[in-house]
Amino acid sequence: xxxxxxxxxNATIYxxxxxxxxxxxxxVKNGEFLYLIGRTGSGKSSFxxxxxADLALTDGEGSVVNYDLKTLRESDIPxxxxxxxxxxxxFKLLSDRNVKENLLFVLKATGWTEKEEMDVKIEEVLDKVGxxxxxxxxxxxxxxxxxxxxxxxxxxxxxxxxxxxxxxxxNLDPQTSVEIMEVLRKINTNGKTILMATHDYALVLKYPSxxxxxxxxxxxxxxxxxx
Length: 227
Hints:
Layout: E1 4-15, E2 18-29, E3 33-37, H1 44-51, E4 59-64, E5 67-68, H2 77-82, E6 84-87, H3 99-109, H4 115-128, H5 144-156, E7 162-166, H6 174-189, E8 193-197, H7 201-206, E9 210-215, E10 218-222
Helix pairs in contact: 4-5, 5-6
């Protein structure tokens, strides 16, 4: 399948009305894995926020999972986000709820109502990230790597067409980072499209894939050996 899940043409990415990236052109097809690399402040997070409509696209053309970012209405944003899975650096788990309750919160917020279906889905995503049996653990009982696995499971709940991972290993030690990377690569092998922003060049070298570099207000593809 070569369906395009993301396309930006001549786009400018803004943060607080200031352009951080100009002349952005990208096309991502179903099943691809892309790294986004560059220094802090180079525009990686702003780029991802534009894709899930936290920042508006005002200049250029853009579509994500068949939603036109330029004409996107406020009321359409929740529906766009249901087709995306977002993984954050700092996990963003609700500290007063156990793992299952964290995942139930997302399912209910995105329109699920049948208890049995929700239970089945939670078991399924926990199994995919190697966390079966952890449903009743509280976040503080989990290691950083385990919390990030739950973060990835949460991103999978609505069977997203595109996963956006913003520094998913940024708070983890090298060995745990490799374990999280293995989870993401397995998910990608099973057909999910993933964009991953990272500072961890060791991971980029260990798991080579298409790489986009953010530098000087531009985004461009780099060949692996020059990363």
